[in-house]
Amino acid sequence: MKDMSRIIDHPVLGKMPDRKVLEFQFDGHTYQAYENETIAAALLANGIRKLRVHEESGNPRGIYCNIGHCMECRVTVNGQDNVRSCLTVVKEGMVVESGKQLPNIIKRMVEQS
Amino acid sequence: MSDCIIIGAGPAGLAGAIACARFGLHVTVLDEFIKPGGRLLGQLHQEPSGEWWNGIKEAERLHQEAIQLSVDIRCGVSVYNLEKEDSCWNVYTNAGTFTAPFVLVATGAAEFPIPVPGWTLPGVMSIGAAQVMTNVHRVQVGKKGIIIGANILAFAILNELQLAGIHVDRIVLPEKSAISQKAGEPEEVLKSLLNAAHLAPSPLLRLGSRFMKNEWFRQLGLRFYPKGGMKVNGTPLQLRKAAIEIIGQHQVEGVKVVDIGVDGTIVPGSEEIYEADFVCIAGGLYPLAELTAVAGCPFQFVPELGGHVPVHSEWMETPLPGLFVAGNITGIESGKIAMAQGTVAGLAIAKHAGKGRNAIDHQIEHAVQHVRNVRASAAIQFNPQIESGRQKMKELWEQEYGSKLNRASEERIG
């Protein structure tokens, strides 16, 4: 597995122990992750920062707080919407999808009235 | 059914679990993170003694001790409501409802967000997010970063990023605004840094701290503050520059920065762009207290403690029978204080549950004294006025809710 953006050796924390490698999908592509890591960490290690777009504007979003407070990192996991990728451990064969732009029905109704 | 449910598996929650489990109480600890430890996870700094404080190791030690005492620790569980029903508390979570006569809320702190135009771009994160990604997940947050906000937490995590080989290009202030307030005013920032000058992020700050206590010297110091900044651990701390926008198409590409005056006013025409692929916003911490609010606990605004905190006694009791608090929810301090407070709370819960007979009062007082000792010997304080904040809360409790000893004997259960 490519480990370019991982911190394997650390002067105080030591070397990362060997961990089981698994595969998961994000937006139709297959990526590798280590067992027991979060979806957000696995994606960042694969060079992916953009986890969703703002539902109305379509602007890109990624992690902000990384500990479950801000809800910015929500993705769809195995069909379940709005899952916080920073608190969810990635599993073998998991199907993850980024959050998509949605129609703003009420705003369109207001504009038309 | 548990005797006690603890919300938060950080230093306060785990220490609390250990203390009351030692008296034979059945304890369940709930936490929404993937592993126990709370914000101990990721902490890494050198003590004045030269020894390393490794939060991951501390968390493991507490976790093991709790397991040995048969504490039931459940991770990945999010609590969204807390309600009293008869003599028990219902704790509502994504994994069902838990019920117990005692609840310890040890939810810790959250980071103040400082909105900057462009801050929603991928690659912008809170400083704490970078800490967790680096030390817990061991994934690089980027190749070249800029920190917005100069405070103790930012310096501590700057050091951690550097240890992991991640380059932080510079630290600048946020633009002065209604939200950033003093964090956007160089003179106020310098004042707060001087309170921690013995921490010595820079020898210059350390040397200057005595003179700089004087306002005139401080103003002079800032007026002649080097344009390129003073080096903190090799990274320029640019107190006279503020970030006005984070730029990038699909993710962070850089930060637009301007020169600012001593009071934070922007110097016209001074815009510059510094390249970066990640940005950390360091706005400081506030007590994460929503759950005690929905439970109906009264609050008090104590700026020295970090904002609105649930009213509590030195024994970590709240005015609501059976509801206790410990750790950063009661005021922003170090993990060591949180641990010491957790022990107090655990002992107080044991007493309220009718355990320990007469000897326990002495144990609780001893534990309360330990909190004071840890505070007095702390190398850093998030707020230098913390002691006065704690005193305010103590006085408020004594005025409004009377003697804790009376309360405990009146409401003893079982």
Structure description:
The complex is a heterodimer of chains A (113) and B (414). Chain A has 113 residues and is of the alpha+beta class. Chain A has one domain (9-102): 2Fe-2S iron-sulphur cluster binding domain, sarcosine oxidase, alpha subunit, N-terminal domain (Ubiquitin-like (UB roll)), CATH 3.10.20.440. Chain A is built from 2 helices and 9 strands. Chain A has helices at residues 39-45, 105-112; strands at residues 9-10, 14-15, 21-26, 29-34, 52-53, 60-61, 74-77, 80-84, 95-97. Chain A is elongated, with a radius of gyration of 17 Å. With 414 residues, chain B is α/β, with parallel strands linked by helices. Chain B has 2 domains: 4-111 and 285-410, FAD/NAD(P)-binding domain (3-Layer(bba) Sandwich); 124-281, FAD/NAD(P)-binding domain (3-Layer(bba) Sandwich), CATH 3.50.50.60. Helix content of chain B is 34%, strand content 25%. In chain B, 51% of the residues are buried. Residues 200-204 of chain B have low confidence and may be disordered. The interface between A and B is large, with 34 and 38 residues.
User: What Rg of chain B do the Cα atoms give?
Assistant: 22 Å
Structural class of chain B: alpha/beta
Q: Supply the number of helical segments of chain B.
A: 12
The CATH level-2 architecture of the largest domain in chain B is identified as 3-Layer(bba) Sandwich
Tell me the number of strands of chain A: 9
N-to-C terminal Cα separation of chain A, in Å? 56 Å
The CATH H-level homologous superfamily of chain A? 2Fe-2S iron-sulphur cluster binding domain, sarcosine oxidase, alpha subunit, N-terminal domain
* CATH-defined topology of chain A: Ubiquitin-like (UB roll)
Q: Determine the CATH topology of the largest domain in chain B.
A: FAD/NAD(P)-binding domain
Taken as a percent bin, the fraction of beta residues of chain B is: 25-35%
Task: Tally the beta strands of chain B.
Answer: 22
Largest interface: A-B, 34 and 38 residues
Note the beta-strand portion of chain A: 25-35%
Count structural domains of chain A: 1
Order of helices and strands of chain A: EEEEHEEEEEH
